[in-house]
Amino acid sequence: MSKKIYPLQFDPILKERIWGGEKLKTVLNKPISSKITGESWELSTVEGDVSVIANGELKGKSLTEVIDEAPNEILGTEVYERFGKQFPLLFKYLDAREDLSIQVHPNDALAKKRHNSFGKTEMWYIMQADPEARIIVGFKEDSNANEYVEKLKSNDLLSILDSVNVKEGDVFFLETGTVHAIGAGLVVAEIQQTSDITYRIYDFDRIDAQGNTRELHVDLALEAINYEKVDTHKEYLEEENQSNSIVNCPYFTTNFIPLSDTINISKTGNSFTVYMCIDGAFEIEYDMNMYQYQKGDTVLIPAAMDYYVMSGKASILEIYIS
Question: Mannose-6-phosphate isomerase cupin domain: from which residue to which, for each copy (predicted)?
Fold first, then answer.
């Protein structure tokens, strides 16, 4: 790459949603003007929604452009070998003013067969939760397709789904096939495979401003659902100034860093790293330059950045592929 490597930030891709609100502005300082902004796509190569660099020499270039020019330097040698020039993850912040639809995502095999896409394994970090806020994750007990269809037809699906009260700092890991919904009153950091394949099962009989209901994908979902009870809640340590493991799966590794001082970071060059600042503020010193971040910021550390220094007082999610 002709231009130098440095920490990359991107213009947020803001999405209006029927269930969205204004917390992405009030809580995370995103530049929204709508009262129904539900999502800020922080880092994406989904077709039609490719992130554009917002800082430094590469400002204005898309993520796909810089990967194409320097795949090993941006993605990392092992990530490039495994995924080619496709950026394999998608990073979002979500504001649920109302309940999201109940939905499910297909696994890699089914998504490849039907949509030529990755599946959608994901995790949620709860950044802010109103009192009594909850999520839906999987079934209360092991179920089956027949019971599921019967409950759906009788408008009684919620009776067999597991509803969980949540608080700030909770983490949930959702493998493909897990029926789920983010509930009202939550701001969530979401990490997932690069995929926009969602099968909407139930939408609480909502209508949009034009009086239309949203499309459901009941038949498509049948084969995608895991009908067994699953444990999605993840416990993790919070030891200061180090990486505390939260999720380690084939698609991504996520750690929690409670930063209160200065730490030196050394990388191997095998994978990019992404930091999501979920509280506080921090800075990165690299190549005699300082880069500053605050709550709601997301930064991509190219794999070629093999040594840098982080300092500040912040809670940070650290994500890479191992």
Answer: 246-320
